[in-house]
Predict the 3D structure of the following.
Amino acid sequence: MSILEVQNVNKSFGGLKALQNVNLSVEEGTIHAIIGPNGAGKSTLLNCFIGKLIPDTGTVNFNGQSLLGMKAHEINQTGVSRVFQTPEIFSDLTVYENVMIPCFAKRDGSFCLNALNRVKSEAEIHDKAEHMMEDVNMADKKDMVASSLSRGDKRRLEMAMCLAQDPQLLLLDEPTAGMARADTNNTIDLLAEIQNKRHITMAVIEHDMHVVFSLAQKISVLAQGTVIVEDLPENIKGHPKVQEAYLGGAH
Amino acid sequence: MDAILLQILNGLDKGSAYALIALGLTLIFGTLGVVNFAHGALFMIGAFCVVTLQKILNLSTVAIDPTKVDFLGNPLKVKTPYIVNWFGEAAGSAIINWSVPLAILFAIPIMLLVGYVMERGLIKHFYKRPHADQILVTFGLAIVLQEIIKACYGANPIPTPAPEIFRGSFDFGVWIGMAENAVIYPYWRLVYFAFSALIIGLVFAFLQFTTFGMVVRAGMADRETVGLLGINIDKRFTIMFGIAAAVAGLAGVMYSPINSPNYHMGMDFLVLSFVVVVVGGMGSLPGAVLAGFTLGILESFASMNEVKGFFEAIYLPSIDQIIIYLVAIVILLVRPRGLMGRAGVMEE
Amino acid sequence: MFDKFQNNDRMLMLFFIFLVLAGPILLAPFGAGYPDLLQRFCIFGIFAIGFNILFGLTGYLSFGHAAFLGVGSYSAVWMFKLLTMNVIPALILAVIIAGLFSLLIGFISLRRSGIYFSILTLAFAQMSFSLAYSVLTPITNGETGLQLTLDDPRILDAANTSGSLPSTNFFGLTMNSTAKFEFFGMVFQFNVGFYFCAVMLILAFYLAMRIFRSPFGLMLKAIKTNQNRLNYTGVNTRPYTLAAFVISGMYAGLAGGLMACTDPLAGAERMQWTASGEVVLMTILGGSGTLLGPVLGAGFIKYFENIFSKINENVLHGWFSFLPDGLEDLIVWVLHFFVGKGWHLTLGLLFMMVVIFLPGGLLQGASHIIDWIRGKKQSSSTQISNPNSMPAE
């Protein structure tokens, strides 16, 4: 069963057609990679999922519900979380507080005037936050201010924040960009583990083919705003159309 | 028809002042990314340049004239300005009479200097600080400048009359072929409007037709890239700040006969000019000018008795005092970006 | 010293209660032990605490908070005129009206953020000021200000036959009654009005502390650091900022109501932009985002305003009389710009100094100095900074 169904999405900026008739379907419980050369429209597509951009035409359905016209926080509340290319975290707050916020958002919804509750006495939130930090191996850094973390840690923190919401669909925008090989491997292991444990559906944008082929169960290749191939990883590797897109029509 | 024309004319002078201040605010915001809460103070300093020049010109020798006595029979003190002593009676009093236009020459170097000192001494250090800090520091500076002027010149307004030939009014209606006494308009307001139009024109021409202006416009669009091109953008921005200060100062100089300079005039105009900038669209120069004149004229229309009466009937008395704010609210609700604002300015 | 208290809320609260209630004794040696000034400490403390809930937590810089203070004052005086001289109904009305007014202004201003928001609130405050000053004269009594008169209805109170204006009271306890004690040549004054304001300040402080420690407060802090992420975390930020705006507006209304309780008149000048600027200064001077900071900032400003305004040239000549005449005159001439009526100049300079050199406020400055002294003592020990000990908490 497909959890995210994208049909005939078009988006243009002025004269530039960033997305043309994109069709995509992400199966529940899988890791779906979206790859493609620079400027193929990967990030634009992701932004259409989370309400940052609104497609000119087409439909984006999540669990049968249209996401178009919904505000960012409404989309998130239906179960879509996103990890950004440059980590978006609450840099002035501690790591622990960073993780607690999505826990509250999950429990209390998009707004709750709980001005007289004490954060201290919210036992279930603390349990969950502690648990999350152990999951991403950051329990020892929980009192650090988030801005003082290393880049890799920031990304892991963001991942923990997204997971704390128990999303049904996790969108990852280049989760290993700029990482050293060892860190990249850690991230791969982490994602695989999350997938094994929690069966969260993931859509991953990625440049690094090593990451893509070690994780993805299905791959869509985007070039010049359209999906040229959508297939299993083993069929993608030698696919002539993919080679053409990447190598500029090498014969 | 003539009533409408009269209101438009009446709105022009305030509109010009709003437009000039808003223009400077937008220039500074667009180029330097700083919202200058002290900009109204620059307008006020301009007006006080006139007061200062007037005082200097009226520095006098005091001589006791034994031939004249006052009603108690004491010899009368006669004050003769140095200017009169030096240049003779006719030329001397003419200079004093023309002190407001002369103050333009006096004010330009002063305002450029004030702008330069402000930018190099204070604002420069705040480019990388959060907007809240920029607002707070310029806000503090506005208080300081205002209080210094108050300490030096006192709290009361000081009249600075226009040259004699511009005092009084003329029949504008007759000029354009209307009935006599239909549209009576003070000379000086027309002068003020013409002057403002000239300044606005000069600023736009400068930005449009000079290399310097081109760089500044490019800087307003994308500061980082222009910096990467190896152009010393900071130096140009300093000059730009000086120009914006001079524009505000000249607006103040020429406004002084309309409204006697007092120490709080800057802040009064600043708040309204901010509204103008917001309505026009943050970062848009034509928007600032357009909104300045529109709001000035609207304000003048709202002060018409018919309009006032109408709003009083629907329980909105003294509509002229708050019309600008009401318009601003409506525009912001309908078109949050302002009349001519670009997307993405101040929307982070 | 303060960071220790910041860790332990109960200690902090007890310390605060002690400080406030013992105010008349503690401050008497500094010449600040008289009721009028002590009341102002409390009232502006409440104002600044409220402002800090908006600015310190969410980072939204409002330049219009004096408008809510003014609205609170007007509402309270109307209650004294129409209903009763008891302060409780007056305060309730002041808070409610200020809350409604801030809901209206917040709803419109919060459509934008950053500089736009600051400008909008400034414009609204200026509009309220000109409304109060001229347009709404039937309600505000324009330039003269709203005052009590002998023939006000006051339907709940017994008929006033004394021929003088009644004074405000708290169920019969008159606000301006004072008990005086002399001790070692010092006069200690215990005033009903002050203790009423003090209790209000303590309640206001307690409530602010609860908000700071609540999930709601955590969300507000998150808005300040990254509004984007919060949106993508499924939180609708608009109602949070609006709630913070209204809460801080209600604090301002309470402060305005208390002003009317201690001195039953209300004028438009309370709504001017300088008054809005003053509360901003109090908050950042003390340290925005901290619990104690705004109260300290308010006390600091009001104390020095009081001292500076009283100094005149004669006093200055007295101070510097030991200097040679010419030098004395020069120093006095320079200083006289900053004292007496020149207090606003000092205030403006202070404003700039704090923003330039001490953006974290006095509390952070103090903790930097403490850290620096400690750092000198144990120079080689490298320690990971423990964020719990940061005063910005």
User: Anything to note?
Assistant: Chain A touches chain C at residues 50, 71-73, 76-77, 81-82, 88-94, 97, 100-102, 104-106, 108-120, 122, 125, 143-145, 161, 165 (CB under 8 Å). DSSP finds nine helices and ten strands in chain A. The first strand of chain A starts at residue 2 and ends at 13.
